[in-house]
Every structure is written in C-alpha cells, then in structure tokens.
Amino acid sequence: MNGWTRMLPLLAAAALAACGGPATDDAAALEGNGVSLRNLGETDVAAPAPQRFTVQGRLIPTPSDASSRYYLLRDRTAVGGTTIAIIRQEHAGRVAYARTEVDCARRLFHVLGVAPNRALAETEQAYDGPLRPIAGLPLRQELATYVCRSAGTPLAAA
C-alpha cells in the first residue's frame, strides 16, 4: 500500500469536517475524528459509479437520507460477537464503500474503513474511534437495524 492510500482516510475526515450538510449525523459523527456516512459519497473517497456493480447488494431502507442509496454487500460475525458489514453508498453518480462494526446488543456502531472500492474498504482504516452509541444518529440507527437483522441478531431496544 502506498502513502497516498494510507492518507486517504485522513484526507476524507478533513474534507468531512469542512463539509456542511444535515447536522443530525454529521456533528455527532465528527466528534473524535468520526466519519460521516451521510456525506461519504460527496468526498474524495468516492469514485464515479460504474455502469454495473459486480456485487449488487441488498438495498437498506434509509428514510433519513433520501438523497443516497445504501446497500449491504456483506456481513459477518467478528470474534468478539460484533457484526462487521460492508456497505456501499451511491450518491449523485458517485459511489463509496464503508466497513462498519455494529454491536447489536449494546446499540453501538463505528466505521472501520472507507474507500472508493470494496477491496480497499476491507483494508483501509477510517480512524472513527471506538464503538459509540447510535442514539440521536438516525442514519446509523437505520444501517445498524438492517445489518443486525441480516446477521440474525436484532438490534436491542433503545
């Protein structure tokens, strides 16, 4: 991995900090160098969307973000019992990928990696900090609900 790909998540976080947009997820997500999933498709992390996707994924209902479409591409249970998911965001002809971790029992979520393609999202580090509560973050709640249901472990009640 070259130096540019190592710096990409840091540049994305800096770009996100400079972006405006809906405050519901952004302000809380950016605390502690978090990553805003809502604006990921508008950052330098995103790439032009291809004509066809190799992995179609399953559309995640996200009423809190009607301008983007989110797809669950893969989920797996980690050693500690959390769920790791690969999510694709499509926004305005661009696409970005995120590797997320969800603790369904404790209603916690964080982003592990972001990238312009699925392969890099699997390996890149997003520096999103530790698992954090999803209360007050509607997009993260919607994503966590879908991921947990897909993994067979429904999201615990609030």
Automatic annotation (TrEMBL):
Residues 1-17 form the signal peptide. Keywords: Signal. It comes from Sphingomonas rubra. This is Lipoprotein. PROSITE patterns: PROKAR_LIPOPROTEIN.
